[in-house]
Amino acid sequence: MAELLRVTALSAGYGDLRVIRDLSLSLARAEALAVLGRNGVGKTTLVESLVGLTRRFAGTVALDGRDISARPPEARVRAGIGWVPQSRGIFRSLTVRQNLTATARPGPWTLDRVHEMFPRLAERGGHMGDQLSGGEQQMLAIGRAMMLNPSVLLLDEPTEGLAPVIVDRLFAALGQLRQEGVALIVVEQHARGVLDLTDRAVILDRGRIVHEAPSAELRHDTAALEAHLGVASAVLPRGAAAP
Ligand SMILES: Nc1ncnc2c1ncn2[C@@H]1O[C@H](COP(=O)(O)OP(=O)(O)OP(=O)(O)O)[C@@H](O)[C@H]1O
C-alpha cells in the first residue's frame, strides 16, 4: 500500500518539555492505526504534533512525501490532515449546520454525505452547538472534520464519556470512513473497540513506541496488554471472563 504519512525520529513537546521522544511511524493510504497507552504517556501530544500544535525539537512529519514539519496547523489541514480534538471544539454559538459548513473545503465529503453518515446531524441541523448531547457533539466534530476532506483523520479519544450504544455507532461510522479510503489514527482508551476497527496498533510509554503489532494480534496478546496497559480483560469479547 502507498505510504501516506511518515513520522521520522520526532521529538516534540511544550516549552522545554520533551514529551514525544525519537518517535518514528508510518501510515499507508486508507490504513487505520490505534494509538494506545496509559494516561499521560504522550498520546495527545503525538496527535497535536501531527497537527502542528506543539514545539518540535527534532525529526520530521511528511504527508504524501512532502515535509510538513515547519508548516502551521492551517497549512497542514489544507494538505490533508483532519483533526477531531479531545475537547471536540464545537462552535457553541453556531448551529449544527453552520458548524459543518463554516470551515468546509471542496471534495467528496459534502453536507449530504455527512448527513447520510450521521442522520442525527440533519435532524438537529438548526440547533445550536451548545444544545447537543455528548454523542451528537462527537458526531458533529467528526462530520466537521470530514467536510475539510482530509486524507487522514486524527481522533483523540472520540468515545470518551459516551454511552456504549453511541460508542458502537461511532465506531461503525469510523469503519465506514475506512472503507471509503480515509486513513485513521485513533487514540483510545476503549482498546477492544479500537482494535476491531484498526489494522495496526502502537502502544506508547513515556513518549516512545514500546510495542507495535497488528491489531488482530494485539487483541489476543493478553501478556502485552497487561504489561503495557493493564487492560487485558477490557479487550476480551463481551461477557467472557479474563483468564
Ligand atoms: N499544553 C501542555 N503544556 C505542558 N505540558 C503538557 C501540555 N499538554 C500535555 N502536557 C504534558 O505532556 C505529558 C503527556 O500528556 P498527553 O496529554 O500527551 O498524554 P496522554 O497520553 O494523551 O494522556 P491522557 O490519556 O491522560 O489524555 C504529560 O506529562 C502532560 O502533563
TrEMBL record:
Organism domain of life: Bacteria
One BP annotation, GO: L-amino acid transport
Domain ABC transporter: 5-231
Family matches, as CDD domains: ABC_TM1139_LivF_branched (cd03224)
Keywords per UniProt: Amino-acid transport, ATP-binding, Nucleotide-binding, Transport
ATP-binding in keyword set: yes
InterPro entries in the cross-refs: AAA+_ATPase (IPR003593), ABC_transporter-like_ATP-bd (IPR003439), ABC_transporter-like_CS (IPR017871), BCAA_Transport_ATP-bd_LivF (IPR052156), P-loop_NTPase (IPR027417)
SUPFAM superfamilies attached to this UniProt entry: P-loop containing nucleoside triphosphate hydrolases
Gene Ontology molecular function: ATP binding; ATP hydrolysis activity; branched-chain amino acid transmembrane transporter activity
Keyword Nucleotide-binding among record annotations: yes
Alphabetized Pfam families for the sequence: ABC_tran (PF00005)
Recorded family membership: Belongs to the ABC transporter superfamily.
Name of protein: ABC transporter ATP-binding protein
High-level lineage: Bacteria, Pseudomonadati, Pseudomonadota, Alphaproteobacteria, Rhodobacterales
